[in-house]
# Entry
Amino acid sequence: MLQIGKYAFHRGAILAPMAGITNPPFRQLCCELGAMYSVTELISCHAVVYFDSKARNREKKRGQKTLLLMDRYEGEHPHVVQLYGREPELMAQAAQIVEREGAEIIDLNFGCPARKVIKNGMGCGVALMRDPDLLGEITRRVVDAVKIPVTAKTRIGYGPAEKNGLEVAKIMAQAGVQLIMIHGRTRDQGHSGPVDLAYMKEIVDAVSVPVVGNGGIASKADADTMMEKTGCAAVAIGQGAKGNPWIFSEIAGTGEQPNLTARVATCRRHLALYVAWGGEQRAVTEMRKHACWYLKGFDGAAAFRKRLGEATSEAAFNRLLDEVPPQ
Ligand SMILES: Cc1cc2nc3c(=O)[nH]c(=O)nc-3n(C[C@H](O)[C@H](O)[C@H](O)COP(=O)(O)O)c2cc1C
# Structure
């Protein structure tokens, strides 16, 4: 069992945050299919504070964009909002704002390797692994600023010669986080390549808060291996959920892999949820990549995927889906 504050989860896996992917429609699908919970994509503390200082001017474009990232789907509990930033005061302020806006857990991002997050003077995300004192101060300030639980996500290290995930995890635990998610790769590996299960186990053994393992899980067997070899409290899945939200029911033991007809049905539902949340134009454009992930392995699949670009309305998208052979 996994417990974060008043939230208890009995089995399954967590949907790891992914910018541009884990928005409300996809989070809803994954949680309906058995994900323990999901996390919003990363949100800048500057953007949150800016949105607030603009006195909820919901007409402002930037404010609107931030608001959308913070959205929850109806019935989402817990609503976990991920923040990133390097100024402790701003992070604390942003945490209070998202708590006031309804977040039920705040997750701190200390793992993102994206250039725009770690460079250009930002020094956020995984860059903070190189400044563990500051990382600890940010964490403490956020924990002290809010009443809701705070969790954090990091990596095993910045690079092969800078594996300090253990030190960082101890600092986070001491600063009061209630759960630590460890992506078992270093910053230079990005989001692919081998995951260091032995080092993850050292982290699990060293801290008293629950540790969630993450990295490279594409099946229940992979999840079982990570649980066994690291002793982690649960696992989180990122890329393995793209086009395959059923991975959560497989791991929870509540469902099986669907046939093509069921995949098409889920793609339609995903599209409808997307339209309701983000509007038709955005939904149709952004659902093309999801449809490519859902719809593989039938005669003519490659040609079908190429034609997705032609679908410029929800109705046209659905008409194209009608052409997938039933199975
Ligand atoms: C496209 C993409 C976007 C991501 N965005 C975030 C993010 O916003 N916050 C975060 O903590 N991690 C982010 N990650 C990292 C994932 O949460 C996860 O740690 C990583 O993909 C490894 O897990 P996986 O092998 O199961 O995909 C992102 C990964 C990908 C591929």
Observations:
- Residues 195 and 279 are 38 Å apart (CA to CA).
